[in-house]
């Protein structure tokens, strides 16, 4: 199969999506499309390079939003029916709302719109599925209550990207989720993969439900549920 897989900026179900892509790439052609925020969030969770490692060659590209300027020429492949399937996983509340209202102003939403024109099936995994609490995983986090303000901050010195302002914060836009800082801090003040509970908003759940009315688009709870 030739599959396009779009990743948007959600931490929830992100690692699971990358794992399914890695497994599919062994036997299918996969083009990976990243929303601008999808690219940032992949880096924050230390997952970006895993995708770089499995891409290369025609129809096996890793395509960033910025590489497509404003007219998204690559999405012409969808209107021409060049793919068997477009997967959007994870799909943020923002991306779902745009799809529902027919907005196609970035690489991912444009690919969905062009898929409709080229009769390419779309499988979507919205992260906001039902109201109530959901456990989600954070990228690297500095816990100030554990920070003892050492005279030199080993974690800041160890960071290869200068992402840490000692005793203050981690700049997630510089962080690549490598975890070196967590190992360097002797007081365990930096952790990655911490689980927090968040609460889904009613408007986002309503938008997700509206996806059910879209012809050619199927909603899945997890990337592992999609059959290839
Ligand atoms: C670390 C991190 C995790 C995020 N996780 C989620 C998430 O699980 N669900 C969500 O809807 N937005 C999440 N966001 C916010 C989106 O990235 C943000 O709304 C972005 O504008 C979405 O753009 P996109 O839909 O074009 O990818 C997260 C942001 C950050 C920094």
- Secondary-structure element pattern, one letter each: EHEHHEHEHHEEEHEEHEEHE
The top level CATH class name of the largest domain: Alpha Beta
| Overall 3D shape | globular
Named once each, the bound ligands are: flavin mononucleotide
Structural class: alpha/beta
The CATH fourth-level homologous superfamily of the largest domain: Flavin prenyltransferase-like
DSSP summary, beta strand count: 12
Which architecture of the largest domain does the CATH hierarchy give at level 2?
3-Layer(aba) Sandwich
Q: What's the number of domains?
A: 2
CATH topology term of the largest domain: Rossmann fold
Strand order of the largest sheet: 3-2-1-4-5-12
Characterize the main sheet. Answer: 6 strands, parallel
Oligomer: single chain
Q: How much helicity do the residues have?
A: 25-40%
Distance between the termini: 8 Å
Whole-number radius of gyration? 19 Å
Concise synopsis of the structure shown:
The protein has 228 residues and is an alpha/beta fold. Helix content is 30%, strand content 22%.
Overview of this structure, please?
With about 230 residues, the protein is an alpha/beta fold. The chain has 2 domains: about 1-130 and about 200-225, Flavin prenyltransferase-like (Rossmann fold); about 140-190, Alpha-Beta Plaits (2-Layer Sandwich). Helices cover about 30% and strands about 20% of the residues. The protein is built from 9 helices and 12 strands. The protein has helices spanning about 15-25, 35-45, 50, 75-80, 95-100, 105-120, 155-160, 180-185, 200-210, and strands at about 1-5, 30-35, 60-65, 85-90, 120-125, 130-135, 140, 165, 170, 190, 195-200, 215-220. The strands form 4 sheets. The protein has a 6-stranded parallel β-sheet with strand order 3-2-1-4-5-12, with helices on both faces. A hairpin with a 3-residue loop joins strand 8 (about 165) and strand 9. Helix 5 crosses helix 9 (about 200-210). The longest helix has 12 residues, at about 105-120. The N and C termini lie close together (about 10 Å). The mean pLDDT is about 95. Flavin mononucleotide (FMN) binds next to helix 2 and helix 5.
């Amino acid at each position: 199969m030739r599959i396009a897989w779009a990743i948007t900026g959600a931490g929830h179900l992100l690692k699971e999506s990358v794992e399914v892509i890695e497994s599919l790439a062994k036997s299918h052609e996969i083009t990976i499309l990243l929303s601008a925020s999808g690219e940032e969030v992949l880096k924050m969770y230390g997952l970006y390079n895993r995708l770089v490692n499995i891409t290369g060659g025609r129809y096996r590209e890793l395509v960033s939003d910025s590489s497509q300027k404003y007219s998204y020429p690559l999405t012409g492949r969808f209107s021409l029916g060049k793919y068997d399937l477009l997967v959007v996983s994870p799909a943020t509340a923002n991306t779902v709302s745009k799809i529902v209202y027919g907005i196609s102003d970035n690489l991912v939403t444009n690919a969905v719109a062009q898929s409709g024109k080229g009769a390419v099936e779309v499988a979507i995994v919205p992260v906001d599925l039902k109201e109530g609490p959901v456990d989600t995983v954070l990228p690297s986090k500095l816990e100030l209550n554990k920070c003892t303000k050492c005279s030199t901050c080993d974690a800041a010195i160890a960071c290869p990207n200068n992402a840490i302002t000692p005793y203050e914060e981690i700049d997630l836009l510089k962080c690549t989720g490598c975890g070196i800082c967590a190992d360097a801090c002797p007081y365990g003040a930096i952790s990655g993969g911490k689980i927090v509970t968040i609460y889904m908003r009613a408007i986002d759940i309503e938008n997700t439900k509206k996806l059910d009315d879209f012809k050619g688009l199927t909603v899945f709870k997890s990337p592992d549920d999609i059959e290839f």
